[in-house]
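TA notes, week 10

Several of you asked for a full example with nothing omitted. So below is the full record: structure tokens for the whole chain, then the designed sequence directly under it. When grading your own attempts, check the secondary structure regions first.
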């Protein structure tokens, strides 16, 4: 199922920009979020968010933590970039 995904414009704790899906109770208000697009997976949404914020990460509530594992293997370049920050 495709969902609308947004990224928080303001960095949260650890300077991360959190990605949320539509319907998440932690979704920022209209002015505080950037629309990413519609995606089938949270992983794809986070990948898109990293084009704007290299420190983007998935919300633990609406974007399952397990996503991080696949990011480690498939997007090592993005992670390398994060380490440099
Ligand atoms: Zn969320």
């Amino acid at each position: 199922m495709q969902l609308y995904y947004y990224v928080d414009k303001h960095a949260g704790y650890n300077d991360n920009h959190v990605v949320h899906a539509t319907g998440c109770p932690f979704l920022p208000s209209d002015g505080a979020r950037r629309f990413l697009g519609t995606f089938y997976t949270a992983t794809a949404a986070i990948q898109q968010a990293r084009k704007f914020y290299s420190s983007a990460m998935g919300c633990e509530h609406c974007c399952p933590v397990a996503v991080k594992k696949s990011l480690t293997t498939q997007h090592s370049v993005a992670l390398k970039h994060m380490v440099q920050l």
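Confidence is low (pLDDT under 50) at residues 72-77. Use that as a sanity check on your answer.
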